[in-house]
Design brief:
The protein is of the alpha/beta class and 368 residues long. It has 15 helices and ten strands.
């Protein structure tokens, strides 16, 4: 397992995220953690050289921290690093939360502590709560080694929060899809300019980049037959010099083994690889998404008055992000809903892109 210098220590390039630990029912996202299997997986990761273990107060309703603490207690405390987080909306009592986390993790210090899930909506709450000052004080006392924050905020909020003081590190969602089609590249550059080391979450975009479309997969497999599709995503992030640790939320031994193989060396992607990945990423995007330009020509003839462009936007989000994107349906202003679609085909006749909207509305109605 390759490691990288961080201040006075060395941390493994691959970090273990503990949000998707094995559960007693793999089909139920809310099922309890399977402690024996999870502990076996965590300990195997440690034995293979991973020394950075990430969790949070809210993961699995607190069970993630408890399971991680139980798994790691058999190893010398100075041989690994614990990372966990404080989420102000889960419990604003930061002093009580911090003490509870120490108990759950069975430790007297947190190595990497984060303000959790910074957004445009909660940034001021964090800044005005006293939490940051309290955690800085705990750092002075040696109960926190390094203080950072994880961000899902827009670039302006990220820039403002990053300037609060000299943070030790920051965690952002970073992968080649978001680099090309979202704000990940700009976020990375903001942190690079401030010389803040980057811990990466969602390098495989919640597993979505572990398999693209058959055509896009073939492009990648032809270039490197021995690499998994997920390995391309991890190697892309490895290529970025400001990146310190790349987190992977592993649930199975097979995932762990594949990741260990990817991190057996420091190799990222060369220029030819980058071109190949960009081609596959473009194919993937074009093949999974409907090419709606929001011209709204379809709306005027819809007898059910469905806000078609907004529902097609929702559908595209679902194809990339999965079921979590469907929560956005509640915010769509539309008299008609996908289930109301009469299948008349008027929208197809008005669409410059020839999108088969009735077919998509049928699928959305089923999903919603």
């Amino acid at each position: 397992m390759k490691k990288k210098a961080f201040q006075k220590i060395e941390v493994s390039r691959l970090g273990m995220g503990n949000m998707r630990l094995p559960s007693v029912d793999a089909k139920d996202s809310k099922a309890p953690i399977d402690y024996p299997e999870a502990i076996k997986l965590i300990r195997r990761a440690y034995e293979e050289g991973i020394n950075y273990f990430d969790t949070a107060y809210v993961y699995n309703d607190g069970d993630s921290e408890k399971c991680l603490g139980e798994a790691m207690k058999v190893f010398p405390r100075d041989s690994y690093y614990l990372a966990t987080k404080f989420h102000i909306d889960a419990n604003p009592d930061y002093e009580a939360v911090f003490e509870e986390q120490l108990r759950r993790l069975q430790t007297d210090r947190i190595d990497f502590y984060l303000i959790h899930c910074l957004t445009d909506g909660n940034a001021d709450k964090y800044l005005n709560s006293g939490a940051i000052e309290y955690f800085l004080e705990q750092k002075k006392k040696g109960r926190i080694s390094y203080l950072g924050f994880s961000s899902h905020a827009g670039v302006d909020t990220l820039r403002r929060f990053a300037a609060h003081h000299q943070w030790d590190f920051t965690q952002i969602q970073l992968n080649y899809y978001d680099w090309n089609y979202s704000s990940a590249k700009e976020e990375y550059q903001i942190l690079e300019e401030r010389n803040i080391p980057v811990m990466v979450m969602e390098p495989v975009r919640g597993g979505r980049l572990a398999s693209l479309t058959p055509e896009a997969n073939e492009v990648l497999k032809t270039a490197h037959p021995n690499w998994s599709i997920a390995a391309w995503a991890l190697r892309f992030v490895k290529s970025l010099p400001q990146v310190q640790v790349i987190l992977s939320g592993m649930s199975t031994m097979d995932q762990l083994e594949d990741n260990l193989d990817t991190f057996a060396d420091d190799d990222g992607l060369n220029e030819t690889d980058m071109e190949t990945l960009e081609k596959a990423c473009s194919m993937f995007k074009n093949q999974i998404q409907v090419p709606c330009t929001a011209c709204r020509y379809c709306c005027s003839g819809c007898p059910m008055e469905i806000n078609i462009p907004e529902y097609l936007k929702l559908y595209n989000g679902y194809k990339v992000d999965g079921e979590q994107a469907l929560a956005g349906a509640a915010a769509i202003e539309s008299k008609g809903k996908p289930a109301d679609c009469a299948g008349c085909g008027s929208c197809i006749g008005h669409c410059p892109q020839n999108i088969n909207t009735p077919e998509i509305m049928t699928e959305l109605a089923r999903l919603l």
